[in-house]
Amino acid sequence: MNEDPGEDEKVDEIVRSGPNGAIALAGISTAIVIGIWFWFYFAVFLPRGVIQ
Description:
By secondary structure, the chain is mainly α. The chain has helices at residues 5-16, 20-48.
């Protein structure tokens, strides 16, 4: 266990603040994937035209 009781309070405060960094990282990653998907769609699929 920790010898400093103040350290436990600091950890509790960090945990109470929530997973803001993880949510931001997930949002940025999702935006990048969607952006790549749109780029691929407009750069590859649309120039080929309709497949008949």
